[in-house]
Write a structure and sequence with these properties.
Blueprint: H1 5-22, H2 33-52, H3 63-72, E1 84-86, E2 99-101, E3 115-120, E4 126-128, E5 133-140, E6 146-153, E7 156-160, E8 163-164, E9 167-172, E10 178-188, E11 193-204, E12 210-212, E13 220-222, E14 228-231, E15 233-235, E16 243-250, E17 253-258, E18 264-267, E19 273-283, E20 288-290, E21 294-298
Length: 299
């Protein structure tokens, strides 16, 4: 039988096209599929083993020593690892190794890191001490799964966040006053990371608003059937905080509520009798301040 080189080349192209179709989810060019898959599997195996037993890599400097260790630990690495190289300025022994696939064109192809967008908290937000601060981020990865999202507060580890779909969420309750920086770091199966930071997050001891009714005094008398204008002074002693609402209370029930200055209320006309009058105010953290309760007469 005569050897037909062109027919053989045609069959090889068909086989290669089929392989690329199967491996399309890896987002590689046809010449890079095998090498990229090897880099992916090597990176995944290395990172999983680093999390569980980093001491195994203490004396490992390169792929020549690394591959036997991973094979010995039960990881099935493809033969194409000989087309994978260690990225410059990364280290196997320090847990920073990144492995690059070397395609036929002798150009490096490497995994794409994840991306993370912090939704809460954001820069320059203000909170009261012991407030519950929501931690929320959107995390995406084009190639593989997110292993974890680590939270660091003022550069100290503060746990990890559970992931549901492309969002991670949790909560942080500050225990001391100060200016804070919150960082979230997403890790994928390669060990590649992405981070997002919120800075100048202030936490302070919260004090309720100071509330006064300067026009009232105990046992003051008002005329029945007449309306009076009463002014309320409401000031929050915490500089970054705001008064959100002020209410005039008569016999324990709100007569009226205002959300912005001036806090001037119409008192009356009322039926003859004895009334207990005071004012309340809330700040943006929900802290409530109350004035003195005055006993007044309407005759």
């Amino acid at each position: 039988m005569e050897f037909d080189l062109r027919r053989l080349e045609s069959w090889l192209l068909v086989i290669l096209a089929g392989a690329c179709g199967i491996l399309l989810y890896q987002r590689c060019a046809p010449s890079e599929v095998t090498n990229h898959d090897a880099a992916y599997r090597l990176q995944e195996a290395y990172y999983k083993m680093w999390i569980n037993d980093p001491r195994r890599f203490a004396t490992v400097s390169g792929l020549k020593d690394l591959v036997p260790i991973l094979n010995g630990a039960g990881f099935d690495l493809p033969k194409a690892v000989d087309r994978v190289v260690l990225a410059p300025n990364t280290s196997v022994s320090k847990g920073t190794a990144i492995f690059l696939a070397l395609p036929k064109q002798n150009q490096y192809s490497m995994p794409i890191p994840p991306s993370i967008q912090m939704l809460s908290p954001t820069n320059k937000q203000d909170y009261a001490l012991r407030d519950t601060i929501k931690l929320l981020a959107r995390v995406t990865d084009q190639q593989c799964q997110i292993i974890k999202v680590e939270v660091r507060i003022n550069d100290e580890e503060a746990g990890t966040l559970p992931s549901v779909g492309d969002q991670v969420s949790g909560a942080w309750k500050p225990t001391k006053e100060g200016n804070n920086t919150v960082m979230m770091i997403a890790y994928n199966e390669f060990g590649l990371t992405a981070s997002a930071t919120a800075s100048n997050i202030t936490v302070h001891e919260n004090h309720p608003p100071t509330v006064l009714l300067p026009q009232l005094s105990d046992e003051m008398t008002f005329a029945a059937g007449t309306a009076y204008k009463l002014r309320v002074s409401a000031v929050d002693p915490d500089k970054p905080d705001m008064v959100t609402d002020v209410s005039l209370m008569v016999n324990g029930k709100p007569l009226s509520t205002l959300t912005q200055e001036p806090y001037e209320f119409v008192f009356g006309p009322l039926e003859p009798g004895i009334y207990m009058v005071h004012a309340t105010a809330h700040d943006q953290h929900g802290s409530k301040g109350e004035s003195y309760i005055y006993k007044v007469y309407v005759k």
